[in-house]
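Forwarding these from the shared drive since the link keeps breaking.
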Amino acid sequence: MSERTRRIGSEAAASEYLAGLINVEKERNAPYSRFDLEPIRRLMARLGNPQAGLSVIHLAGSKGKGSTGLMVEALLGAAGERVGTFTSPHLERWGERFRIDGREVAGEALADAVERIAPHIDEQREAEPLHAPSFFDALTAVALLLFSEAKLDRCVFEVGLGGRLDSTNVITSAVSCITSIELEHTHQLGNTLSAIASEKAGILKAGVPAVMGDLRAEAAEVVEAKARELGSPLARLGRDFDFEILDRDLEGQSIRLTDGALRVDARIAALGSHQARNAALALACVARAPGCVRGGSLIDAAERGFAAVRLPGRIELIGRAPWVLVDCAHTESSAAALAEVLQQIPRRRTQLILSISAGKDAEGILRHLLPQVDAVTVTRAEPVRSLSPSEVAVAIRAAAPSVPVQVVPNPHLAIRAAREDCGADDLLCVSGSIYLAGIARRVLSDTGSTARVAVSRRSGGG
């Protein structure tokens, strides 16, 4: 056992080790050339290629892939399958990214996995510096190692960034899914929908079934062309499968999903019409997974699975009197979905705590959220990835001069102060990034000032 391995004996030590790697996720202006599958491929070879033989549902998209992934996990679990789920980023703990059978992998098991991959990473970094594994390469390797050894029936992998050159693309999927495409991560993925679509369509595999959301024409054309090139049967939302919202309130919504002859009526404890779309995508993925249940068994599994789904940090109502809503909206469409829900909540006034990550469409986010709020506090959830609060404040003042805005760089202080300023009939909304959503859940829980509503420990990424 190497000296490096002996030092990793706990989840905290494993986290410290991983943080010392090149963390491409947090590099604002990392050149896309830095993203490369060769490091993860070489690391997998050192580990005996644990990804071989896994049946994977692979999810890419600008928004919705995390929620869709958790829904897929729930449906497969309800169908009697053992499932491993890898999501990113995390809300509160990096260990949330790894789940087996709907539960976070225990810290000791994670530490053990990191111990075993660390010598290979260290040797590769020293012997092949041009192919040094990154932070996300290492996390992907941990997931593949854990899932391979757990002898699972199915795995769900969420892309970290893009698709074509994302570390998760070392796998060969059983089903590929692209949930949505918007202008995001433009420094790395390109500044047009077609360019971004091309990167995300990189997860499609020859002959493997693919599922696609209702994308804009420019993006859809790219994905459809890639599917034709690879001979991948492509099912599209709104054409081959669809959804209908039957009823909704502040506890969730009743939905009807159709996919060919398949019809499922279900209840989900999730707010926003976008979650009904994600449910349709999840069912379409499961319906096309090789060897999965079909017919009445699938309908039963879907009804039970959707009823059990909890989506932390996704328009999550965690308190009443005052209303407290935590969300990780970081694209224009997700901000529009949040605004739709805000309109349904009766309140006297609304305070918004906001942090926006670099590379996101800040103008589009503000366009939807500002008409719904009475005051904004801008903060910085992540020191490297987040835009300068002052920069965001200037944009807010230009877009909505009548809305009071203040800058509180420390997100913990910003959230606590706003919560203390809320009356019983007010609404506190925390949004803009998954980093801020995670901080908000932790701060509001620690203060004990907010009663949680239907919060599950089943946490994942964005």
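-- next protein --
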Amino acid sequence: MAEIDTQKNVYLFLHGKMDLKEKATNALTSKGFSADKITMASPNKVGDIGDYMAMLWRPPTPDQIKIQQITKIEKVEPEGMIGLWKGVSQDDVDTIPL
């Protein structure tokens, strides 16, 4: 797996599992990410190239966090719950048990 720059921002996708927010945040901080760099993902704002996406995986009963690095951002019309993230390309870089 690719080396992770834990100084970059991380956008956390909970897929509606708000009860797992603290557990997911703790897992990411134990991986070396700073709690102040972890942001709840919003359909209205995406990160920058080089930032990370962290999503609970596999819905509907996640048991891990998939970490992906943002590699490309295209301008798109927001769509549903995905919003602007529809235009984001990413590469899988790691997984963390939840």
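The chain has a mean pLDDT of 95. Residues 21-30 form the longest helix (10 residues).

- D.
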